[in-house]
Each structure stands twice: as structure tokens, then as C-alpha cells.
Amino acid sequence: MIDLHIHSVFSDGELIPSEIARRLSAMNYKAFAITDHADFSNINFILSNLLKLRDFLEDYELKILVGVELTHIPPKLIGKAVKMARDLGAEIVIVHGETIVEPVKEGTNFHAVQEEIDILAHPGLIDEKTAELASENGVYLEITTRKGHCLTNGHVVKVGEKFGCEFVLNTDAHSPSDFVTRDFAEKVLRGAGIDDPERVFKNSFKIVKKG
Question: b/e for 123-145, b at 16 or more Cβ within 10 A?
């Protein structure tokens, strides 16, 4: 099991990175990414602190990727934020998509999938043109286990599969109670309309390997 969308105390999560690692290792996870909420005001703070882990990663029990979730940034500025994140050493960059339970600016999904990002998180009622661009640009669409955001999982799969999009399954965890088992993750994927959950899990391994 791999989770590529987790928040720590460096944004609005409850746990420090080491506790996230220990808890997920105990649940037999193989890897995870910390992707704290970031914009131009705090992106350097988040990455400079998370990257301090690099000198100690060989002593952790699972693979850890350092990244950000670019959140509520004006759509036309997403490209600048992505470049900043990469320049600062982010190994994975995701964008907070147009979930139906938050007032995300319209156009966020469309601009995000045209940039050098890895995942469009909880993309809500994603439209066909955006899904087509995500497929063309190799941007993964997120299927989420998080309350509220998960309400449009079925729509994301339906539209995404029409254009050959690839998916990942993440928790968007903010607290220990948000972590899920592989069995539960499989149920969420099947409930969203994916008949072969294994191919989704393999996508997460691909991102970790690239990172």
C-alpha cells in the first residue's frame, strides 16, 4: 500500500513526519508522500523543513517522498508555483483540485493538468477537456477516501476512463484516523467503478520509483 497525499504539522495535519512513517509502517505500507498545503507564502517553509529528512531516510522503514499540495492558488499562477516547488526540491507535486465541498476557483483543474505536476487531487466534477489534457500530459487523477472529496469519485473514473486517464488512490490524511487498509482502499476503488484495483496501486509504485 502506498499513499501519496498526506498532511503533516507543517500545514494542517496532526502528526510529525516520523509518526506518520511509524504508523504507516505498522500498517504494512511500502511508501508515502507528505504533501502539505502550500502557496507562495509557505512553500519554502514546508519544503525546507521536510527535506531535512533526506539525511536520515535510510533508517526509516519505508520510502518517503517530500512534496506539496498547491492549494487555492489562482489558476493562472499554478505554473509559477509548480516551478517554485520543483526548484525547491519537491519530489512530488500535486494540485488541490475542484472538489465540490470547497470553493476552489473554477479553472484550477484545467490549468493544473497543463503543468509539470504528478497528481490532480480530488478533481470533483472534472470536465472532458481537462480529463483529455490530463491523459495527454501524464497527470494522474486522484480517487480519494476522504470524506466529502470522495463524493465525486465515480464521476472522476467515468470521465477519466473515457480518455484513458490513469488513477491513484490516496487518503488526503490529516489525522491517524484517516489512514486506511489496503482492503478498504480496494473497496473504495471498486465503489468508484474500477474493476481492477491492482492497476491503480501499480500507478502509485510508478510515481514512487520516479521520485
Answer: bbebeeebbbbbbeeebbbbbbb
